[in-house]
From TrEMBL:
Transmembrane intervals: 6-25, 37-54, 66-96, 126-145, 177-202, 209-234
Keyword Transport: no
Source organism (scientific name): Candidatus Scalindua rubra
Alphabetical keyword list: Bacterial flagellum, Cell membrane, Cell projection, Cilium, Flagellum, Membrane, Transmembrane, Transmembrane helix
Gene Ontology terms: cellular component: bacterial-type flagellum basal body; plasma membrane
Gene name as annotated: fliR
Protein name stated in the entry: Flagellar biosynthetic protein FliR
Length: 256
C-alpha cells in the first residue's frame, strides 16, 4: 500500500501544480486577502478530488529530473491559461468602471482595491464586487473546476499542448474584454458627453457664466444618477458576459 502511494506521488504532484495554477490565477481564489495557506490547502483538496478521475496506468512520466521540471512548468502554463482566461471578464468590469469614472471626472479618486491590492476608481471597485457576487450566484467557481477536470481529457498530462489554437482563443478573449467594457460603459459615457456638448453651447451663448465651475460637479451628479438608474441593466449585462465567459472557457479548454 505504501509503495503504491509512493509510486503515485509524482503523478499527484503534476496534478497538484495544474490545479494550484488554475486556482491561483482565477477569480475568487486569487484574491490577495485570502491567506496563502488557505489557497494551498484548497489546491490540495481539489487535487485529491480530481486525482481518482485520472487513469494513472495510462500516464508515462519522464524518468529524469529535467524533463519532470519541464513538465511541471507546462502544467503551470495550462493552469495559468484557464485561470487567467476566467479573470479577463473582471478586467472588463474594471475597464468599464475606469471609462465611466474618467467621463465623470473621478480619475483622481483612486482607492486601494482590497481584493487585488491595485489602485482603482470607486466605480470600478463597485462593478468588480458585483461581478464577484454574480460569479458566485451563477456557480462560476464550480464550472471553473469543471473546466479544470475537462482539461485533463483535452490535454492529458503527457500530451502536447496545441499552442496555436490556444493563443488565438486568448487573443479573442482579450478583444472581447475591451468590447465588453465599452458596451457596459457606453450608455453613461454617451449621455455625459452630451452634457459636455450642451454645457459648451451654454458657455458660448452666456459668456458671463463660468462653465468650468458648473460642469465638473454637474457631471459627477448626473453620472451617479445615471449609474443608479442603469444599474439593473448593467448587472444583467455583466451576468450575460459571465455566461458568455463560461462558454469561452470551455471552448478554450476544448481547443487545447
Amino acid at each position: 500500500m505504501l509503495l503504491n502511494i509512493i509510486n503515485l506521488l509524482p503523478l499527484f504532484t503534476i496534478v497538484l501544480f495544474r490545479t494550484a495554477s488554475v486556482l491561483f490565477f482565477s477569480p475568487i481564489y486569487n484574491q490577495t486577502n485570502i491567506p496563502m495557506i488557505v489557497k494551498i490547502g484548497l489546491s490540495l483538496v481539489v487535487a485529491f478530488a480530481i486525482f481518482p478521475t485520472i487513469n494513472a496506468s495510462q500516464q508515462t512520466l519522464p524518468d529524469n529530473l529535467i524533463s519532470f521540471i519541464i513538465l511541471i512548468f507546462r502544467e503551470v502554463a495550462i493552469g495559468f491559461i484557464i485561470g487567467y482566461g476566467a479573470t479577463l471578464a473582471f478586467g472588463a468590469f474594471v475597464v468599464a468602471g475606469e471609462l465611466i469614472s474618467g467621463e465623470m471626472g473621478l480619475h483622481m479618486a483612486q482607492i486601494v482595491d482590497p481584493l487585488f491590492g491595485d489602485q482603482v476608481s470607486p466605480i470600478s471597485q463597485i462593478l468588480q464586487i458585483v461581478g464577484f457576487l454574480l460569479f458566485l450566484a451563477i456557480n462560476g467557481h464550480h464550472w471553473l473546476i469543471n473546466a479544470l477536470v475537462l482539461s485533463y481529457k483535452t490535454v492529458p498530462i503527457t500530451e502536447f499542448l496545441g499552442s496555436g489554437v490556444t493563443i488565438g482563443k486568448m487573443v479573442q478573449l482579450f478583444e472581447g474584454l475591451f468590447v465588453s467594457a465599452i458596451k457596459i460603459a457606453a450608455p453613461i459615457m454617451i449621455i455625459l458627453a452630451l452634457v459636455v456638448v450642451i454645457s459648451g453651447l451654454i458657455g458660448r451663448s452666456m459668456p458671463e457664466i463660468n462653465i468650468f465651475l458648473v460642469i465638473f460637479p454637474l457631471k459627477i451628479i448626473i453620472g451617479f444618477v445615471l449609474l443608479a438608474l442603469t444599474f439593473p441593466f448593467i448587472t444583467r449585462a455583466m451576468e450575460y458576459l459571465l455566461n458568455i465567459l463560461r462558454k469561452d472557457i470551455f471552448s478554450l479548454v476544448g481547443g487545447m
